Amino acid sequence: MKQTIAIILLTLVAIAGWAKTDLPEQSVVLPDYDEEVARQRLLESDMQPLEGIWYYPNEDMTLAIERWAPEPSHKIGYRILLIASEDLELLPGTVIGYIEASAVEGKYHMWLYSQRDKVTLCGPLECVATLNSEATSLTFDPPHWEVKLRANFARFLPSLFKGISIIPHVEQETLPVGFKKIFPADGNGNKFDKVRYL
């Protein structure tokens, strides 16, 4: 039984490692990429709910999410492309991350580049992203776990840790950061091609 569990865990670790190695370690830049190009590419495809143009308020960026597969044999994923940013050193068309579907509907694995080497981004970090049911917001919340140590020097009570206990502590809930869809959607979250009655 223990051997079976060990084999399953090793297999899962290997799969996770394989999935991450498919991601480029550094970002690439698609030349001549702007909002008009992004809209045209999206309109010419059969858009999935995750695809579109998004606004990232925490970084004041406009982004596009489109389907991407590094090779035809790989499963389809998505890449996140920069359209516009206040940071003028980041070029439009820079790939800032990747997204992969999970087994849970509306939940995705997302990797965002976390480091910068001049104009190149590197060091992708993984988090879980959640697409709401209307496909108008994509939120993600990196884990906020802390470990607190408490020493019981008096040792008045018996302790499994012989005077030291480890207490996992979760920070107070905060709003997750995320993206808000701006195309194909209007300011009320309605799809751009949906008829609205006044």
Describe this protein with a few key phrases.
198 residues, two-stranded antiparallel sheet, globular, Lipocalin, disordered C terminus, mainly beta
How many β-strand runs? 10
The rounded Rg comes to 21 Å
Major sheet description:
8 strands, antiparallel, barrel
SSE-based structural type: mainly beta
Number of helices: 2
Summarize the structure.
The protein is mainly beta and 198 residues long.
Structural description of this entry:
With 198 residues, the protein is mainly beta. It has a domain at 24-141 and 176-183: Beta Barrel (Lipocalin). Helix content is 15%, strand content 39%. It has helices spanning 2-21, 35-43, and strands at 52-56, 61-68, 77-85, 95-101, 107-117, 120-131, 137-140, 145-151, 164-170, 177-183. It has an eight-stranded antiparallel β-barrel. Strands 8-9 form a two-stranded antiparallel ribbon. A hairpin with a 5-residue loop joins strand 4 and strand 5 (107-117). The longest helix is centred in the N-terminal third of the chain and has 20 residues, at 2-21. It is globular and about 35 Å long. Residues 5-21, 144-165 and 192-198 have low confidence and may be disordered.
What does the secondary structure layout of this molecule look like, with pairings?
Blueprint: H1 2-21, H2 35-43, E1 52-56, E2 61-68, E3 77-85, E4 95-101, E5 107-117, E6 120-131, E7 137-140, E8 145-151, E9 164-170, E10 177-183
Antiparallel strand pairs: 1-2, 1-10, 2-3, 3-4, 4-5, 5-6, 6-7, 7-10, 8-9
